[in-house]
Design goal:
The protein has 156 residues and is an alpha+beta fold. The chain is 26% helix and 31% strand. It is built from 3 helices and 7 strands, in the order βααβββαβββ. The strands form 2 sheets. It has a 4-stranded antiparallel sheet with strand order 1-2-3-4, with helices on both faces. A 3-stranded antiparallel sheet has the order 5-7-6. Strand 6 and strand 7 form a beta hairpin. The model has no long low-confidence stretch (mean pLDDT 95).
């Protein structure tokens, strides 16, 4: 698989991937947060805007789903002052280490910049994953359950 053969599209243009995107998000984050699959599908269907926020993107190769990412107004309740956010970056395990995550990040940043934003944010508990793509650690902030998460910023 070559990077130039990977297609990144807005989910609004390829709605046949809604359930796959939702299932990946549910499996990766939803179960631990107590979400239902139906609730994640509902949220995904309402993150299919093409000219504003919220947008969801999918990476495919030869009509095979590889991964997804979203551009949201907010992904951290304790920081309502920061927006927009890159959220739900997910690459299927068998396709990791092909640069797909970087392609998805680049797409979100490109769209956020086109929408007139100069910064974008993300939360993560990963170490040394996003720094290599120019993300800067901003702070640790509380999640709703009292634990802390790392907040990153990227200049666009």
């Amino acid at each position: 698989m070559k990077k130039e053969e990977i297609i990144i599209q807005n989910l609004a243009d390829v709605p046949q991937w809604v359930e796959e995107v939702s299932y990946c998000q549910y499996k990766e984050w939803g179960i631990a947060k107590g979400d239902t699959l139906d609730g994640v599908i509902y949220r995904t269907k309402h993150a299919m805007v093409k000219t504003d926020i919220a947008q969801t993107f999918v990476a495919t190769y030869q009509d095979q789903f590889l991964g997804t990412v979203a551009l949201w107004r907010n992904d951290l309740c304790s920081r309502q002052d920061l927006y927009p956010w890159m959220a739900c970056l997910y690459v299927k395990e068998e396709f990791r280490h092909y640069g797909i995550g970087t392609l998805l990040q680049n797409k979100v940043m490109e769209v956020a910049k086109q929408l007139g934003y100069s910064h974008i944010y993300l939360i993560t508990n990963h170490d040394n994953l996003y720094e290599k793509n120019g993300w800067l650690f901003l702070e640790k902030a509380p999640l709703g359950d009292g634990t802390l998460t790392k907040v990153y910023e990227h200049l666009l």
